[in-house]
Amino acid sequence: MYENWFLDYASYVILERAVPAINDGLKPVQRRILHAMKELDDGRFNKVANIIGSTMQYHPHGDASIGDAIVNIGQKDILIDTQGNWGDIRTGDRAAAARYIEARLSKFALDVVYNPQTTEWQASYDGRKKEPVTLPVKFPLLLAQGAEGIAVGLATKIMPHNFCELIQASIKILKGKSVSIVPDFPTGGQADFSNYNEGLRGGKIRVRAKIETVDNKTLLIKEIPYTTTTQSLIDSIIKANDQGKIKIKKVVDNTAKDVEIEVQLASGQSPDVTIAALYAFTDCEVSISPNACIIIEDKPRFISVNEMLKICTDQTVELLKKELEIRKGELMEKLLFSSLEKIFIENRIYRDIEECETWEDVLKTIDKGLDPFKKDFYREITEEDLIRLTEIKIKRISKFDSFKADELMKKYGDELDTVNYNLENLIEFSIEYYSNLLKKYGKGRERKTEISTFDTITATKVAANNAKLYVNRKEGFIGYGLKKDEYVSECSDIDDIIVFRADGICVVTKISDKVFVGKNIIHTEVFVKGDERKVYNLIYKDGKTGISRAKRFQVLAVTRDREYDLTKGTKGSKVLYFTANPNGEAELVSVSLTSGSTARNKVFDYDFAELDIKGRGSQGNILSKYPVRKVTLKKEGVSTLGAVDLWYDDSIGTLNKDETGTYLGKFRSEDSIIVFYKSGEYEITNFELTNRYDAKNVAILEKYDPQKIVSAIHYEGKNKTYYVKRFQIEATTPNKKYLFISDSPASKLTVVATFQQPEVEVQTKNSQKQVEWQKIKLDEFIDVKGWRAIGNKLSYDKVIKIKMTTPVAEEVKTKEEKPKDADSQPKDKDDKDQLKLF
Q1: CATH number of domain containing 501
Q2: Distance of CA 307 to the CA centre of its chain
């Protein structure tokens, strides 16, 4: 049974149920629905229940599958005009029952989907009706609608693409250009198509919700990722909160005409970090794996969406050619019969048949009368043509107008010339066809999903601290369940913990309620993989020789739960001194030898700054060959690490060390970043790579220099006047935004500059309605005042336009202009000067 029947069953499911055909982009049930709707079409709406009943004449399955397929087509808003409650893909609400909702074919469907003359027909399953093998669709419908299906042994998942972009891409293909299309989802959102792989297996799309910050305590989700609903998204947020991954107070679904999910943050939570956590731990970011499979010549094939579009475009050209050829044949037949009719009447052949006694004589007489003209006809005259002439009514003969007949034949001839021209220039005709489709139906079908490039969010960096790390040093236990033991720090339940023991062993393990890591713990903390600025200073005694050694090392990457020996590995080795330094600090220590040692100097100082930073496996430098009694801290150290080069990637609003985006300069531990926002606020932040900035709202982001003068032009909403102000940064509390323009709702920031001599051009109109341009050097226009000052009026005339001029100042450095040895450069050379107008 398996051998004989299972393959037939699998083939049936693949070809007849789950996978769409390349010819029209439809599955059989969809094709039969559209055919039934065309049969019912009279321009008015039909009950969906009636459409289901009509479709069952062609589809040998239950009404439930037909009803679901109709709703699916209707929700895509391309082929069907809907009336009633058809559900909502954003909220997951189902459509009303089939007896309550109505549908009809859209004008677009009537224009591009149907043509009985170019349709190949077959008998329906019971032989009573005829149904199309495929519909002659003159549009890449498959890519516009998308498709998803699970068959036997394979599946297909084709993403929906933008209506207008598909037409534009088809036009490019016809012009011989290469194209690359990416999906567009009806739910909007943002998507990263870097790994789309043209829709083939192995590709991946990352889709994110659009999240806006209302204030420090409220986020709004405005658009959701494709494949999710508002309810599933809210459920995932609540679940992440319950697991402690994020900390929120409340989630409210305000969705009506537009999606709006309000997320109220718990006190003390950063909106930016919470947004990153929402992407990391909830359905605010989902990954979709496309799998483009299509039926071509009765076989499933895996091809790219770009190749699909090429096939669909070529198929449209072929269908347009068939339609032109059919129309050409019709016009030639009309011209032929019009000519026959004119000859038959004007040469009074109809009178010659009056004397004929038999039907055969009548036909012979007409044929003989046409003999002188046969050489001008494009084909031979058949008996059917002669019969049609005998069917002309006397009333028509008596009212025959030769002039009108010539006009009609000329009209047919002109149209035939146009058809012939289009056939000879088929590509141009196809381009015009697509252009007309775009003009007629493209309005309101603009791209909804924003194409973006996402940064990779490290879950451990954005997870909320939902646990506390405790340690029992003597017994060797760590975990968040040891609440009676020593508290170390806050942490997340997905963090890794690094542990150093007195015997010189280092181990990294996953945090849990309680885990044994070895007795006599001297230090433990949350482990940050790849942290190059974290340096450990260690002095240990070798168990075999008794020699004490000092070393500085980093722990960048380890295998979890594997023990690493920081000493030479001999029995009896032990740690004498240990510190963990977040910024590579090197302290000064006092070393005391035992009283019985033969060393001349039994107490001496040792500076860790003299040691190079090496790997954790290095044995270290000899501190003393004599027994060491104790090591104590004498003086706190300073960082021995050089400044770090940083870049700002304004496409995703993050800092990086990967030379991506705008070079900001070299940063030392005391440095910070200043951000000027288009909202008229500034903020000072640290330079942690986990910082996230709203790139669309950032006017200037640069290294903070307290000596710089800030120049700004702003519009005062209360008195409707532009003002100029210059000020130094005074309020410097980190991570707090300071508004330096008026708080009136209509106020706005127009220009902000951070270099010495900013210059703008201002267009004004005076009371005599005279328009003029003037250049203004802002440093000469106004003195430096306090950051809260309103400033001086830009002009007493009406300001029409403000245009910034190219500043004579150091241009913004990019990664290519990064100094080779920035430590040797003057400090102000690390900074960039900026001017922004928006």
Answers
A1: 2.120.10.90
A2: 22
Q: Which residue has the tokens 């963090």?
A: 495
CA atoms within 13 A on the CB side of 143: 29
Query: Same structural domain for residues 654 and 628?
Result: no
Residue 827 has pLDDT above 80, yes or no: no
Do 73 and 79 meet the contact criterion of CB atoms below 8 Å apart?
yes
Tokens at residue 807, please? 């500043």
Q: Are 278 and 224 a contacting pair, CB within 8 Å?
A: no
pLDDT at 739: 92
Instruction: Read off the tokens for 182.
Output: 């990416």
> Could you give phi then psi for residue 253, rounded to 5 degrees?
-95, 105
The pLDDT of residue 391 = 79
Residue 648 known to be catalytic: no
For residue 21, list its beta bridge partners: 295
Give the domain CATH number at 235: 3.30.1360.40
Q: Is the pLDDT of residue 835 over 70?
A: no
| Percentage, residues of the chain above pLDDT 70 | 95
Q: Is 701 exposed, middle or buried (0-12, 13-18, 19+ CB in 10 A)?
A: buried
φ, ψ of residue 422 to 5 degrees: the values are -65, -35
- Separation CA 304–CA 288 (nearest Å): 16
Together in a domain, 606 and 542: yes
Closest by CA position to 791, among listed 699, 680, 676: 680
Same-domain pairing of 626 and 658: no
Nearest to 168, CA basis, from 448, 427, 426, 439: 439
CA pair distance 273, 689, nearest whole angstrom: 12
Within a domain: residue 728? Answer: yes
The Cα 229–Cα 239 span in angstroms is 15
Q: What is the mean pLDDT of residues 465-480?
A: 88
538: tokens are 């260690």
Q: What's the token pair of residue 152?
A: 């036997």
Active-site hit among 2, 9, 58, 100: 100
Q: Note whether 344 and 350 are within 8 A (CB).
A: yes
Q: How much of the chain, in percent, has pLDDT values that exceed 90? A: 50
Task: Report the alpha-carbon distance of residue 330 to residue 334 in Å, rounded.
Answer: 6
Distances (CA, A) of 457 to 221, 558, 647, 655, 661: 19, 21, 17, 13, 18
